[in-house]
Design brief:
Blueprint lengths: L5 E4 L6 H8 L5 E2 L5 H15 L3 E5 L3 H4 L2 H9 L4 E7 L15 H4 L6 E4 L6 H13 L5 E7 H4 L14 H6 L6 H13 L3 E5 L7 H11 L3 E3 L14 E4 L6 H9 L2 E5 L5 H4 L10 E6 L13 E4 L2 H15 L8 H13 L13 H11 L5 E4 L3 H9 L8 E2 L10 H11 L5 E6 H6 L4 H6 L4 E7 L4 H10 L22 H7 L4 E4 L5 H10 L4 E6 L27
Parallel strand pairs: 1-2, 1-3, 3-4, 4-6, 5-6, 7-8, 7-10, 8-9, 10-11, 11-12, 13-14, 13-15, 15-16, 16-18, 17-18
Helix pairs in contact: 2-4, 2-17, 9-13, 10-13, 11-14, 15-16, 15-22
Catalytic activity: 2 pyruvate + H(+) = (2S)-2-acetolactate + CO2
Family: Belongs to the TPP enzyme family.
Enzyme class: transferase
Length: 559
């Protein structure tokens, strides 16, 4: 009745009753991933790519603890998820029973809310509340723990039991006050160098944001979570800001006199040294979560409200006044265009070596920037953020706040379930890919159009980059190949794919890349492409951790 017909569930002793019931459901389909972490990241990919609630189910003990990384990830990236776990029977709770973990306690600080159900008649209300909590206000994960004896009880459910969340509902933000919106527009009118700093909070307001930019002409930079919320190929787009953001985005924020921070949280990977971030600007912060306002950076004007309603309100006000007054940020736009020409994203080429950035550019071109992209975590994630064109919200799926390796493949599969028929590409690193490589089984069994695009440098690339920069290039367990035979690629992903019955190829020469990617995209169903790239390549530009705009590194690598 809550509108979700897809679940990601892996059975075990304490959740068997749930699985038995699922087999009798005419509407709910289960997608059997091969690890609870995989299923939970799939629920996250499903939710991120559709805006609906992702649902995962696991058994007690190790099944439940395997959900922990995905719950933490969903909390940090504000992803609506409901995790349902089996628990040992009520009389055995607290006795160190077989496969018992106090999962409510374990997950308390990494969920938005959680429940231990102690009465079978509470189930309809609790599940309804869980979905409401997960998807309202600032979205997040909710866990529902159900002991096995309660699952086994007979009950006549009362489906329309009212929710009991008076405090939460009373605290949900009200629509933004018109006076505050008028004040923001006044600040825009007074500014010469405004910048929009847009994050994951704008995922549901892409159209309103585009309309606002159309009417004001303010340049836009997005966070890693905000990619696609404003089209990155738009002339007013500055692409991503922060540690590995573009020079021109970070320049714009550094020189801005007004920073419009919409649906963002001033994360350390964006701001670097917080005192130096946007130090010349007045800051307007709009966020649905009161806890984020003033947490890291004090705003001059703050509005605690849904950014969609705030943008709609400002657009309505602008439509009323356009006849009398237009904004002219021409000189500022020209200054930033000059920066774009002077400091474009770029990389060096070396004969037939495949530059990872080049491989992603070819992928972008051959998919016309239309594919849904999921990633692991590391260098490949940053290159995917920099070199692929994101045109719409929910097109980019990445573990941003938690930075969980192994996210890419299961998240891509979850997105394929939520968006039937759409090509989904998992741009992955060899390290991240191996963390949930078992989910090749699911994409084969369900024949999902998930293309695994591995940028394989045989190393933990981002850690290697830090070793090169800050640790005198001393390799500390960052080589992932076979030390006895370094000339051979290890492991052999093409052979592994064969074991899962997935077509696969390896490419080692730049001249073969285009044809290989074309073949990958033309092959129906799943495909694995192993692209061998040099380990010396660094993600640039780079502002070192805790640094400021002036500390930006523009060149150099591990060569």
């Amino acid at each position: 009745s809550l509108g979700e017909s897809r679940v990601f569930a892996y059975p075990g002793g304490a959740s068997m009753e749930i699985h038995q019931a699922l087999t009798r459901s005419p509407v709910i389909a289960n997608h059997l991933f091969r690890h609870e972490q995989g299923e939970a990241f799939a629920a996250s990919g499903y939710a991120r790519s559709s805006g609906r609630v992702g649902v995962c189910v696991a058994t007690s003990g190790p099944g439940a603890t395997n959900l922990v990384s995905a719950l933490a990830d969903a909390l940090l990236d504000s992803v609506p998820m409901v995790a349902i776990t089996g628990q040992v029977p009520r009389r055995m709770i607290g006795t160190d029973a077989f496969q018992e973990t106090p999962i409510v306690e374990v997950t308390r600080s990494i969920t938005k809310h959680n429940y231990l159900v102690l009465d079978v008649d509470d189930i309809p209300r609790v599940v309804q509340e869980a979905f409401f909590l997960a998807s309202s206000g600032r979205p997040g994960p909710v866990l529902v723990d159900i002991p096995k004896d309660i699952q086994q009880q007979m009950a006549v459910p009362v489906w329309n039991t009212p929710m009991s969340l008076p405090g939460y509902i009373a605290r949900l933000p009200k629509p933004p006050a018109t006076e505050l919106l008028e004040q923001v527009l006044r600040l825009v009118g007074e500014s010469r160098r405004p910048v929009l700093y847009v994050g994951g909070g704008c995922a549901a307001s892409g159209e309103e944001l585009r309309r606002f930019v159309e009417m004001t002409g303010i340049p836009v930079t997005t966070t890693l979570m905000g990619l696609g919320n404003f089209p990155s190929d738009d002339p007013l787009s500055l692409r991503m800001l922060g540690m590995h953001g573009t020079v021109y985005a970070n320049y714009a924020v550094d020189k801005a006199d007004l920073l419009l921070a919409f649906g963002v949280r001033f994360d350390d990977r964006v701001t670097g040294k917080i005192e130096a971030f946007a130090s010349r600007a007045k800051i307007v912060h709009i966020d649905i979560d009161p806890a984020e306002i003033g947490k890291n950076k004090q705003p001059h004007v703050s509005i605690c409200a849904d950014v969609k309603l705030a943008l709609q309100g400002m657009n309505d006000l602008l439509e009323g006044i356009t006849s009398k007054k237009t904004f002219d940020f021409g000189p500022w736009q020209d200054e930033l265009d000059q920066q774009k020409r002077e400091f474009p994203l770029g990389y060096k080429s070396f004969d037939e070596e495949i530059q990872p950035q080049y491989a992603i550019q070819v992928l972008d071109e051959l998919t016309k920037g239309e594919a849904i992209i999921a990633t692991g975590v590391g260098q490949h994630q940053m290159w995917a953020a920099q070199y692929y064109t994101y045109k719409r919200p929910r097109q980019w799926l990445s573990s941003a706040g938690l930075g969980a390796m192994g996210f890419g493949l299961p998240a891509a599969a979850g997105a394929a379930v939520a968006n039937p028929g759409v090509t989904v590409v998992d741009i992955d690193g060899d390290g991240s890919f191996q963390m949930n490589i078992q989910e090749l089984a699911l994409i084969r069994i369900e024949n999902l159009p998930v293309k695994v695009f591995v940028l394989n440098n045989q190393h933990l690339g981002m850690v290697v980059q830090w070793e090169d920069r800050f640790y005198k290039a001393n390799r500390a367990h960052t080589y992932l190949g076979n030390p006895d035979n370094e000339s051979e690629i290890y492991p052999d992903f093409v052979t592994i794919a064969k074991g899962f019955n997935i077509p696969a190829a390896r490419v080692t020469k730049k001249s073969d890349v285009r044809a290989a990617i074309k073949k990958m995209l033309e092959t129906p169903g799943p495909y694995l492409l192993d692209i061998i790239v040099p380990l010396q390549e660094h993600v640039l530009p780079m502002i070192p951790s805790g640094g400021a705009f002036k500390d930006m590194i523009l060149d150099g690598d591990g060569r």
